Automatic annotation (TrEMBL):
Gene: LOC107419973
Similarity section: Belongs to the protein kinase superfamily. Ser/Thr protein kinase family.
UniProt name for this protein: Receptor-like serine/threonine-protein kinase
Domain of life of the native organism: Eukaryota
One Gene Ontology CC term in the entry: membrane
Species: Ziziphus jujuba (Chinese jujube)
Length: 811
């Protein structure tokens, strides 16, 4: 008998390890920190486990984890007070209290429950740890006190909030909170280590709740995520995961970098994929680099922090403390000793000591020198009123630097600092508490198209190019092809509605658009993905309606794509107003550009003066830089050409036809045997031809050609170059021609500039600007993609020039 028992227990130890069987902790028993693999509760479905997790040297926290991804902690009892690795335990005491005892003695955490009857602790299938009494009532549950994660089925209420952890390795309470505010709105709040500094950064604080689609009138303060990836909140905020519909493991987490992200678990490679996020521009999170610093979007690592001139890091390597001055910055009695240092395209959000409307830069500077609290000036153009506003900053927080920001900063510094460049060295590094690449326990959306992707992509482009030949004006060619998507599994109607709510653009019915375009009568363009018609919507807006080729757009992928593109928002990108996905019909609705494309304008008489041409080059660069570098949902254009650069009534350029880059699986390409030199001839980078990896530098190349065309008025293929170096040079003719002129007889006298400048401008152009554009363009069209600048660098090169005439240091 005894032997049989021994054998049985041995069997159960080896074949059915005990820790996979317990989901309940009985009264009077405990889980010990010394047996972290054995003393665990496991949910009946085997998805979640609860036990001690090591969080540092001899430091343990009691946590709920996902079995399949042991590093993923979804709840913690004692995040701020880890227990010792010896004799510590979680005990369910006789009086009904669940307590965490450090070294078996000191109560660090407890549920503060009492019960006269017996109680038991149970880990439920949804990851909820619940303390039940004898009648099954819930005395306490972990879902009511979340840490930084909300699981499907868990409610966020007026009494609970998510608080980020310090970093991806330090789970103690960090600086960001996701909570219901007193006005019933769900918000993200930054609380700096300095108790005096805190601010809301989501939704955009300068917008009223109703402008962001929220309501303050629902006092219920409840939000939840369901397992199909749909989130709803009582303030009317809702969103759906990109992969919504499929039931998989999901979690909504307030990450240490202050962004709220929804993750899905990928069973195949056991990693987490982001399927929604609150903030798409990484530098918009408040406090991310601490005070006295700038945040810059960095393509490789997500974002970069740097100290302002004259400042140094306060608490290396933790950026949350930002930078401290290397000088006395209480400018109370030293007005004459300070000057201003210009920093282009930068912003400090909040903490305006004083604010002046419609004021000149000189007046603004005087105001600053007059105020001892003035540490910096924000000088910003107000697009609504067409004048400049001046903000005197008493605290330099939430600094960010972006080529797309229409405002500048002037830092106030002692002259001694300004005059000693050695002291103004700027230190740059990634903020330690975000480290997107290294510590990130997830995968962000694809960022480069290396091998593997490239063939599909190239072939796809070639296929379409060859089908449509010389492509004319194309609006957006969102060709989302998913022959393999099972339509019946597509997103249902109700989910669609939520997507609309989340993206703020409209869903149109086919009948509506048919009526708007008078039965698709007035064709205004024909492009890779379909034909574009002019239409008038029921609210009288004039729109460009693109009827996509029917062939192969799966509904779900189409909506995902539309959702992504609809969220891109930039002055130099064409705006999408809505879409239609009804039966086989796929339509996209855009703002209509009265003044046509750059191609039209270049072909036409003398409508484009130099200033406009330079502005177009600059605006186009900004739009592309935004696509490449600033939106997290990273987009390659892949078809930059004058036909895709539309102009508004002020000749402000708007890039159209982006969105191609996110194609997932192109089936048509399998059989393409077309010549490689098709595509949009003249604008394609050599990578396409030589079958090299496709990166954002292909757009840089095309941009370079467009700039040369804008300067010279000549089509890239319309020139007879004296040299011919074979196939690859076919589309380099314009480049060769420009280089020949530059190095020809006119080299010294700068006569070459006049030779290449579009004769339609006469002699009316800025010599220096033209030379700069040509110089930049020639860098863009380098054969070696590494030698080409990024779009962000191009914007900076062009802007630096504009500011060269102005001073950079003002006394
Ligand atoms: C986490 O951060 C807190 C506060 O900065 C610090 O006291 C604690 O030691 C850190 N814990 C670990 C495990 O590094
Ligand atoms: C269990 O708790 C509920 C609610 O607190 C209480 O009404 C009930 O009497 C308890 N049951 C027992 C057996 O104590
Ligand atoms: C999640 O919510 C959406 C929208 O209400 C609904 O269609 C879907 O069925 C829900 N999923 C689950 C698993 O309840
Ligand atoms: C896991 O698979 C997903 C989807 O197939 C992919 O996006 C992701 O990059 C993969 N992650 C890793 C680490 O390979
Ligand atoms: C300048 O300000 C600092 C701090 O606010 C103060 O300690 C100092 O006495 C002030 N100096 C003068 C001359 O007012
Ligand atoms: C801005 O100031 C200028 C000069 O003082 C004035 O002419 C102009 O009308 C002002 N603009 C607005 C919109 O108030
Ligand atoms: C598509 O879904 C339907 C209904 O769910 C199913 O009968 C069919 O087999 C599916 N087709 C494919 C290719 O998965
Ligand atoms: C040139 O411009 C005029 C008026 O702006 C317009 O009617 C004409 O169609 C344009 N020509 C071309 C070739 O775009
Ligand atoms: C651009 O469009 C506006 C409004 O339609 C028109 O007034 C203007 O003349 C156009 N500009 C050019 C250069 O065609
Ligand atoms: C892409 O298409 C191929 C068939 O051409 C298919 O086998 C493969 O599963 C598809 N991949 C994805 C990610 O849909
Ligand atoms: C390519 O096309 C040929 C004939 O058009 C056909 O026989 C072959 O099966 C196709 N290959 C693929 C992979 O579709």
């Amino acid at each position: 008998m005894y032997i049989l028992f021994l054998v049985l227990s041995l069997l159960s130890q080896t074949c059915f390890p005990l820790h996979t069987t317990f989901d309940t902790l009985r009264q009077g028993s405990s889980l010990s920190v010394e047996k972290p693999d054995h003393d665990v509760l496991v949910s009946p479905n085997g998805v979640f486990s609860a036990g001690f997790s090591s969080v540092g040297d001899n430091a343990f926290c009691f946590a709920i984890r996902l079995m399949k991804s042991p590093g993923t902690i979804v709840w913690m009892a004692n995040r701020d007070q880890p227990v010792n690795g010896i004799s510590s335990k979680l005990s369910l005491l006789k009086d009904g209290n669940l307590a965490l005892l450090d070294v078996g003695l000191i109560t660090l955490w407890s549920t503060e429950t009492t019960s006269s009857s017996s109680v038991h602790l149970q880990l439920h299938n949804n990851g909820n740890l619940v303390l039940h009494n004898a009648t099954g009532d819930r005395l306490w549950e972990s879902f009511n006190s979340p840490t930084d994660t909300l699981l499907p089925g868990q409610k966020l209420t007026r009494d609970s909030s998510l608080v980020s952890s310090k970093s991806h390795t330090n789970y103690s309470s960090g600086y960001y909170t996701f909570y219901f505010d007193t006005d019933n709105i769900l918000r993200l709040l930054y609380q700096s280590p300095d108790p005096a500094v805190s601010s809301v950064y989501w939704p955009d604080p300068w917008l009223r709740p109703f402008q962001t689609g929220r309501t303050t009138y629902n006092n219920r303060k409840t939000a939840f995520l369901n397992s199909t990836g749909y989130f709803w909140s009582s303030d009317d905020m809702s969103f759906s995961a990109l992969d919504c519909g499929v039931v998989i493991h999901r979690r909504l987490k307030l990450d240490p970098d202050g962004n709220l992200r929804l993750y899905s678990f990928n069973e195949k490679n056991k990693s987490w994929v982001v399927t929604w996020q609150a903030i798409s521009e990484p530098c918009k999170t408040h406090g991310i680099c601490g005070p006295n610093s700038f945040c810059t979007v960095d393509h490789a690592s997500g974002r970069k922090c740097s100290c302002l001139q004259g400042f140094e890091m306060a608490n290396y390597p933790d950026w949350s403390y930002g930078c401290k001055p290397k000088f006395d910055n209480s400018f109370n009695d030293s007005n004459k000793e300070t000057g201003l240092v210009y920093v282009a395209n930068s912003e400090f959000y909040g903490y305006d000591r004083y604010y002046f409307e419609n004021i000149t830069l000189e007046q603004c500077q005087e105001e600053c020198f007059r105020t001892s609290q003035c540490k910096a000036i924000q000088y910003k153009f107000d697009w609504d009123n067409s004048f400049y506003n001046c903000y005197l900053k008493s605290v330099m927080l939430n600094g960010r630097h972006s080529p797309n920001f229409d405002g500048d900063v002037y830092l106030r510094l002692p002259k001694s600092i300004i005059n000693h460049p050695s002291q103004t060295l700027v230190k740059e590094s990634n903020p330690d508490h975000i480290c997107p690449d290294h510590q990130f326990d997830s995968v962000m959306l694809d960022r480069t198209y290396e091998k593997g992707h490239k063939n599909r992509f190239l072939k796809f482009l070639l296929y379409f190019a060859s089908v449509v030949g010389a492509v004319e004006f194309t609006c957006i060619s969102l060709v989302l092809c998913s022959l393999y998507w099972n339509r019946s599994k597509g997103i249902d109607k109700s989910t669609q509605r939520h997507m609309i709510a989340a993206t703020r653009f409209q869903e149109f019915s086919y009948a509506e658009l048919k009526k708007a375009t008078k039965g698709f009568r007035e064709e205004i363009g024909r492009g890779s993905g379909g034909i574009v018609y002019k239409g008038r919507l029921s609210d009288n807006r004039v729109a460009a309606v693109k009827l996509l080729n029917e062939a192969n757009e799966g509904e779900a992928e189409f909506l995902t794509e539309v959702n992504t593109i609809g969220r891109l928002n930039h002055r130099n990108l064409i705006e999408m107003w809505g879409y239609c996905a009804q039966g086989k019909h796929r339509l996209l609705v855009y703002e209509y550009m009265e003044n046509g494309s750059l191609a039209n304008k270049l072909a036409n008489s003398s409508t484009l003066d130099w200033q406009k041409r330079f502005g177009i080059a600059m605006g186009t660069a900004k739009g592309l830089a935004y696509l490449h570098e600033e939106c997290l949902e990273w987009v390659l254009h892949c078809d930059v050409k004058p036909q895709n650069i539309l102009l508004d009534s002020n000749c402000c350029p708007k890039v159209a036809d982006f969105g191609l880059s996110k194609l997932h699986n192109i089936s048509v390409e399998q059989n393409s045997s077309f010549s490689r030199i098709r595509g949009t001839r003249g604008y394609m980078a050599p990578e396409w031809v030589y079958n090299l990896p496709i990166t954002s530098k292909v757009d840089v190349y095309s941009y370079g050609i467009v700039v040369l065309e804008t300067v010279t008025g000549k089509k890239p293929t319309g020139i007879q170059a004296s040299e011919s170096r074979g196939m690859a040079d076919q589309h380099g003719r314009l480049v060769t021609w420009v280089k020949e002129k530059m190095n020809g007889p006119g080299k010294r006298s700068e006569y070459w500039v006049k030779e290449i400048a579009d004769p339609k401008m006469g002699e009316m152009f800025e010599m220096a600007e033209l030379k700069l554009l040509v110089k930049v363009a020639l860098q863009c069209v380098e054969e070696d993609k590494e030698a080409r600048p990024t779009m962000g660098q191009i914007v900076e090169m062009l802007q630096r020039h504009c500011q060269e005439d102005e001073y950079s240091v003002i006394y």
